[in-house]
Amino acid sequence: MKIDRRTVLFGLPLFAGGCVSGNFPAPPNPRLAAQPQYSPEMVAMYAAIDTEPFPVPAIDLRQVDPKFLRAEVAYDSPHPVGTIVVDPYARYLYLVRERGRALRYGVGVGKVDAFNFTGEATIARKAAWPSWRPTNDMIAREPDRYGPLSEGLPGGLTNPLGARALYLYRDGKDTYYRIHGTLEPWTIGTKVSSGCIRLLNQDIIDLHRRTPVGSKVIVLTASDAVA
Length: 227
What we know:
Belongs to the YkuD family. This protein has a single domain (about 5-30, about 40-225), classed as Beta Barrel (L,D-transpeptidase catalytic domain-like).
């Protein structure tokens, strides 16, 4: 069966999902979701952005558990300021700041623990509105799903990497793991990807501007997370 580009693009939320694995739940019905009171600052933090090459839609905060929204928190860490620490078990990413503080972002992580990257890496590359293609392993594992996307997709609103990507390298080699945005805000706080670490688009834009190339990333193991 011939699959044209238009079919692929319209099928992305269910078909590609980039750095993802498995089927996605439907977004919660906003009329049935709890509606906590959000501060004006929080609403502004996740408002639409119209200064980008592609317009970034506002986040419907009713689709995200409030505990996974961006916040500055107390965080006692032995790592230097500017280090990114990912706890895939709690579904949080921390950007270490001064005086025992950190910026905390909610994340989506690998659906299967074996898919998750662990240990130390370096951000060797950053991209705004990155292009994406499935890895050879993803194509071999699910050829019907990823084969039609083997040539990749350009950056934009239909690209599963979202508005920004941070590329993780170890010992000078690409690990093929990314910290990136997402098309599906309701997946934040869940196990959904093929190992990449996804953030809300507004959050990855914020993290991207705060994180220079060369920054250290630590993804915790289960024992590290407990400790």
